[in-house]
Amino acid sequence: MRNRRAVPPSPLPQRHGIDPVRLRLPATGPWTTVREHLVDRLSAVAPALVDAMLREGRVWGVDGPVAPDAPYVPGAYLWFHRELVPEVPVPYAVEVLYRDDTLVVADKPHFLATTPRGRHVTETALARLRRDLGLPALSPAHRLDRLTAGVVMFTVRPEHRAAYQNLFRDRLVRKEYEAVAPYDPELELPRTVRNRIVKERGTMAAREVPGEPNSESRIELLEHRGGLGRYRLVPLTGRTHQLRLHMSGLGVPILGDPLYPRLVERAPDDFRRPLQLLARTLEFTDPLTGRVRRFTSRRTLAAWTSHRDRAGEGTA
Fold first, then answer.
1. Is the model more confident about 83 or about 252?
2. CA-to-CA distance for 126 and 80, rounded, in angstroms?
3. Which of 104, 129, 153, 220 could in theory staple to 141 by disulfide, Cβ–Cβ 3.0 to 4.6 A?
4. Where are the beta strands (DSSP E) in 141-190?
5. Closest listed residue to residue 286, CA positions, set 143, 133, 142, 102
């Protein structure tokens, strides 16, 4: 097996819990200077901004800041911090359920992305936890949708990340979700839903298509009242938006879902109608210790608890 050259550590620290961008210069190309390559590579950035980054010493190589006229060196690594655009703060806290030298297990609120992506960068669970806990090497073992609340797990040390990620890859983690959706007395439950889900790059919603099933979910009704049901959802696979699409396909879309069965436009600062989907539990055998671990969210779904309050039945 061919040996791969180790990636050198970043010479730049994190900023606001966000790692610097790392680039590796291609082995071949028409560029004679680093600047020429950056102007091509960062086509969305004005050449004047590239010049300013180099002039101010904001682009680094392994030996320090890169000079504005630095020659192009194939295979060299570069680092710089992206320009952070102001984000709408998500007005809910990330609660830590468990922490040791290996794992951090958090109870993520609705509307907060797990990791930086797109327009959500600093307002993410990962960035917040890195800052709040002082753990710059913290990494996600898996992800939850931005609109889904509940249990999400992170690894403290880079050398442990693969062991825990592989649990999710190999379907060795039992995941249990809770949802609030319309109650249909004609819908026979429990049942297992299997179908094929695809999500094209650049599209917001996934969709069901004919073909060999690649998704599987167990759907159970826990209780119902006043036209609403509280459901237990157990995904046996992990396709994008799988539970949301399966519930919508059964004719009982999850309350607050802005994508299924149809797109509903919402402002970035509209936190009034959270998706009523909660990652309730994670259970697995720890790959490092052999112990069975089970983590449970402390959150509740407002559509169910507020309904109970209105019915005079107390709080959950």
1. 252
2. 20
3. 153
4. 149-155, 174-182
5. 102
Q: Are 245 and 193 in contact (CB under 8 A)?
A: no
Banded pLDDT at 308 (limits 50, 70, 90):
low
Are the C-beta atoms of residues 114 and 123 closer than 8 Å to each other?
A: no
Whole-angstrom distance, CA of residue 19 vs CA of residue 115: 12
3-state secondary structure of 29: coil
- Separation CA 192–CA 292 (nearest Å): 26
Query: How far does CA 58 lie from the centroid of its chain?
Result: 28
Under a CB-based contact definition with an 8 Å cutoff, are residues 260 and 275 in contact?
A: no
Residue 135: both structure tokens together: 């753990």
User: In this prediction, what percent of the chain has a pLDDT beyond 70?
Assistant: 95
Rg (CA), the chain: 23
Question: Which pair of tokens denotes residue 5?
Answer: 């050259």
Residue 133 contacts residue 104 (beta carbons within 8 Å): yes
* Other CB atoms within 10 Å distance of the CB of residue 300: 15
Q: What is the pLDDT of residues 204-261, one digit of tens each?
A: 899 999 999 999 999 999 999 999 999 999 999 999 999 999 999 999 999 999 999 9
Distance CA 149, CA 111 (A): 8
Q: Which amino acid is at 99?
A: R
Phi, psi of 149 (to 5 degrees): -100, 165
Length reported for the chain:
316
pTM of the model: 0.87
Give a three-class secondary structure readout of 191-242. EEEEEEEECCCCCCCCEEECCCCCEEEEEEEEEEECCEEEEEEEECCCCCCH
Task: Classify residue 177 by burial, with Cβ atoms within 10 Å: 0-12, 13-18, 19+.
Answer: buried
